[in-house]
Amino acid sequence: MKTFSNTSSLTNFTLVDDTIQLKLNINTEIYVQDDIKLRLVKNIIERIDLTELKKVYSSSGRKPTVNPVTMLQIIIFCYSEGIFSSREIEKSCKYDLRIKYLLDEQTPPDHSTINRFRQRIVELAPNLLNQMVQILIKEKQIDLSSIYIDGTKIEAYANRYSFVWRGSIEKWQEKLRVKIIKHFKLNKDLSPSQVLEVVKIVFNQVSKECIEKKIHFVYGQGKRKHQLQRDYEQLKDWKTKLETYQEHLEIMGNYRNSDSKADHDATFMRMKEDHMKNGQLKPAY
């Protein structure tokens, strides 16, 4: 820097020289040698079987901008850092010393190249990830004694009004169980499934009797139903309800309190997106 003195105003001005000094490329390994995650990712990718990955690229075609193995290392490392956008990965390739270390003076890929690579390895991803996990387990980098859930909720593609609640099902099931026990004067300790078996037996007997006696079923106003028809319809209604209650409870299992009629895997829960601000429960996973 040069200092210029203006004697008339008694002010010193500092003149900055804008000339940029030509510099040699630095050794990036010096700056990343303590990055354990980077070393781990690089080491794992070098150890897994990448035969299928190399087959994706034709030996006679245009040479890829970045070696596929290096590209996989970059993708895995960026994902581990929470970087998923192709443009953000592109930016990291240009300015992050850790990615520059992986590139080893190769030309940084642009977002289009990154996206094309990800599309090519979609079918290979499960096998590659499985190999990486096996190595991590072998190296004792993963503790299998615990399961971690990040709390992510994915909204199901199901009607938000198709809910079935465990509490309601159990309440109506119990009421019907007590009603049937009183009607047939059964043992009060019978479970809903045992009561259902009794209803099925009686229903089959009534159905058979209706056929044998050639009972003509009538419907509509002014029609008088035969007692066997009344019994048949009542038993059929009980049987259908008990089977429905039992089916929904089996779908929910022991750890869910709801399910959707349209998607049995979905559970109703509150989502982050609540546009109506009313805390509406939606089917989700």
Automatic annotation (TrEMBL):
Domain Transposase InsH N-terminal: 32-120
Transmembrane segments: none
Pfam families: DUF772
InterPro entries found in the cross-reference section: Transposase_InsH_N
Highest taxon of source: Bacteria
PANTHER family: TRANSPOSASE, TRANSPOSASE DDE DOMAIN-CONTAINING PROTEIN
Name the UniProt record assigns to this protein: Transposase InsH N-terminal domain-containing protein
